[in-house]
Design goal:
With 337 residues, the chain is of the alpha+beta class. The radius of gyration is 21 Å and the shape is globular.
Length: 337
Amino acid sequence: MIAMTAVPNRWVRLYPQDTMANTDAVTVSPDNRGLAYADGFFTTMGVIDGLILWSDYHYQRLVSHAAALQLNIDSESLLVILPLYAQQLEQGMLKLVVTRAAQEVRGYGYTPVAGGSDCEVWLKATAMRVSTGLQLSLPDGNLVPIQPNASAICLSSQIACLPPPLAGLKSLSRLDNVLASGELQRIKIEPLASGIASILSEGLLRDMSGQWVEGTMSNVFYQLAEAPLSKSETISSAHKGNDQKNNGYENRDCEEGESYLTTGQWYTPSMAQSGVAGVMRQVILDALSSTEYPVVIRPLTDEDLPKLTQIFFCNALRGIMPMSRLTLLSGEVVGFK
């Protein structure tokens, strides 16, 4: 385990132990398989008051991704090390990157090992503000931040359809998201977009089959005009005094009428062939699983877009990002109350 006097604002190698840990230099060989082949995965964890948000879900990602990619990760040791960095950081973000260790096999190949390939595990701690202003109480009592209403736009960029072992993983191969994010940034600076640029926060992406799947940095949930309304009109207020239950978020009541989650039927696209099965997506799926209207996994198609009545994006750092409008590829704008 690496001795820490302060959290370094740079990459450190947790395993094998970073021999440069006490210097300002970090070296990555061009032979690193994450660099050469995107052979690995990552997870990004928010930290508030020294606690890792949704730590159980991030642990599940470590286990599931290691199994899918045939990597040998000492997840139990990471469960000990990561909270120490979180305590030192207090407020910010931990990014963990896992890559397959260098192989003697030339090219893409690797030597199969019964317990999985050895890994390199990298971590960067970044001090930053994690939003805790307005909190939404989930039906299971957990709290998530809810951001101010913003707008989204349908992008022309498309993401890849992947084989079953890779679909849904937060792998290092993210070039399709990189190009899509670049498209979104170009739209924001176009003169014709000046009227919406200030509140344009996310882009909706299709995969190569033509179905709308996710945002550039988030998952998406939506409601349709013909969907039923539930009996509940507003969410219950936040439960008090349960920091572990609330994953480190400060308890604050959500303003009345801000809840999307307890009114009506929500849908979210499948991650079976494309996209990333995000931590916050799973948190919401689990929280609504025993309610009157559990989330339904359903494709989002071109024909659905004019029928949308609500839509939000979500990720583990920003929580829920509700949208007040969605601009379609045709230029038509769908507005939401």
